[in-house]
Amino acid sequence: MPLPVELTIRLHWVQVPLWEPFRISNGEIRVKDAILVEVQAGGTTGWGEASPLAGSAYSTETPQSTWDFLRDHLIPAFIEQPELDPLRCLDRLSELPGEPFARAGLEGALWDLHAQRVGVPLWSLLGGSNRPVESGAAVGLFTEVSDLLSRVEKFLNQGYRRIKIKIAPGQDLELIRALRQRFGNIPLMVDANAAYRLEDAKLFEEMDEYGLMMIEQPLAGEALAEHAELQRKLRTPICLDESADSLESIQSILRQGSGRILNIKVQRMGGLWPARQAHDLAWAAGIPCWLGTMPELGIASVQGLHLATLPNFTLPSDVQASERWFVEDIISPPISITPDGFLSLSDEPGTGCRVEIERVERYRIRFEELRR
Ligand SMILES: [Mg+2]
Questions:
Q1: 320, β-bridge pairs
Q2: How far, in Å, CA of 82 to CA of 114, rounded?
Q3: Which is the catalytic residue, given 164, 166, 202, 233?
Q4: Which residues form the domain of 264?
Q5: Could you tell me if 267 and 295 lie in one domain?
Q6: pTM
Q7: Second label for 179, Cα 20 to 30 Å away, from 48, 171, 240, 269?
Q8: Does the structure show a pLDDT above 70 at 25?
Q9: Which candidate, 221, 228, 231, places its Cα nearest to that of 194?
Q10: Bigger pLDDT: 22 or 217?
């Protein structure tokens, strides 16, 4: 496809209010930061989202570092020698290593643009299908068990198809026991966010009795051999999340048998296509996947859902309804789940959702425009 003469890229750093504070180890987040990448070419606009959490909760990237990299390096390099085909662009930009979140932002915009220009839905370009995706609810740590139970009850009533709770040393078996006692055999999993050590194996052997769908990232990110050793002791599958941060590390996980499930995150992989490659590696090895989140705003969440229709994403996604997190999402229609807990996509070209620019402007704290 010929390159349009006019090319405009706008970066919008937004802070969208959350319904309730999100508690992480080093503090509390009340707004969701994201850097939206708007690529306008030949009368068509594609949107992407680079979505690191403030306080570098899950990664070393911060909204500031992602903003700086996009504005000072990635976008200027792209403008200098534009390539609107997402795959060829990824190739070209591989000369600027690092910063997966920033890359995911530009790459997402190019996929959206490309899908619209060729007139097909994004899922079809990514090799997926228009099938509904199961949604699972993720619940944080609560000081009171009763608060956890009432939160889980609310999500079950809303239709979510599995419950994931966070665990930490001292807050683990007791929570699982309480949930099993109250809600019986619901689809339940736990996420340890790398908080344990191999010496805690006995605790996980006890956990094995509760019929969990999986135990997510019990040990440190780099502890692949230890994960393999722990997995050999357990019937419950281990799911790798923090460890699965690149194609190379996923290859090591598969080689060493560090787990039986993978949580694939588009932002961490540096875009939809690298995430698809991760899916393909796992598929070839017979390891099922699910699509994790940071969580992102609507733009990146919907793009992730298009990817999550690929055949080896067989477990419920962490993508939840927009209203679960945000007072107001920046897309229309917002993400919603059916009464039985599914997320669905449209057959329209592109992503099938519209970015509401007046909301973007309302929540925007920085803006930059680059033209060619
Ligand atoms: Mg996790």
A1: none
A2: 13
A3: 166
A4: 125-343
A5: yes
A6: 0.96
A7: 240
A8: no
A9: 221
A10: 217
